[in-house]
Amino acid sequence: MASTTPPHALTYESTSRTLTAGGYALHYHEAVPPGPDAGKRPVLVLLHGSGPGVSGWSNFAGNLPVFATRYRTYVLDMPAFGRSAQPDRWTDLYPRVAADALRCFLDALGIEKAHLLGNSMGGNVAAEFALAHPGRAGRLVLMGPGGLAVNTFGPEVSEGSKRLFAFLAAPSREAMRAWVETMVFDPALITDALLDARMAAASEPGAVERAASVFATFGDPRFATVPPLWARAEGLTHRTLLTWGRDDRMLPYEGALFPFRRLPDAELHVFARCGHWAQVERKEEFERVVLEFLGRP
């Protein structure tokens, strides 16, 4: 049953839900606009990025109250992240597994069609879902999306990726700070409280191992039978908003040029003085741009 919690009262606990569908044990957050017509509002699903200790709530807690004023909004913990379980074994590249989990999630909730907003790897998952189930995806908001970015000017492995893998190899508070500081333009945003929360989540039993197993699917030759996502970009015919931080050190913004050119119905918004976390660093502008895009006729 949909939550009718007023936006100002949204908390982790008040929005937390679980379900099992298609063999996936999934955790998510749900919030809907108040009023008798809440169940008729369009659906928006928020898909987080990747990394140790990452969850849907850590990515989008600050944005949920705003989006839930207009949309039935769901923040999904994708498989192996947050409180969603890792499958017993990986049967495909992670974004395609997560896209299948998203399909099962929507089926379980009786949702036929949803707008998708994906951050980083979540953008990869949103794109894979839209390609596999084009009639079930509404508009797409892809935030520095993995898989679609083609880095033509910078190094093959970005600074942010190097620091992420350094943390996975030798987890420490210092390595965590070095990684998350590459997510933003202004390092002052990385407070001790934020660092404590990320470190606590990454220190939970199995968190680092689960993240490492997710990334390992990208190098597994068994899952290389399908062309990479960027090579299938022209199949994404949905109305798409690409967003990027001009100072993104995880997926540098020049990576936006390829999908912006190849996606048939894409537009691009670049945030100045902003890194990979536009939803945090340019929160109000980000929310305004997204709501304007989704709300057009």
TrEMBL record:
Matching InterPro entries: AB_hydrolase_1 (IPR000073), AB_hydrolase_fold (IPR029058)
Highest taxon, organism lineage: Bacteria
UniProt keyword annotation of Transmembrane helix present: no
Pfam families, A to Z: Abhydrolase_6 (PF12697)
Keyword Transport set for record: no
GO molecular function: hydrolase activity
Record key words, sorted: Hydrolase
Record domain AB hydrolase-1: where: 44-287
Gene3D superfamilies given in the database record: alpha/beta hydrolase
Protein name: Alpha/beta fold hydrolase
Organism for this UniProt entry: Streptomyces albus
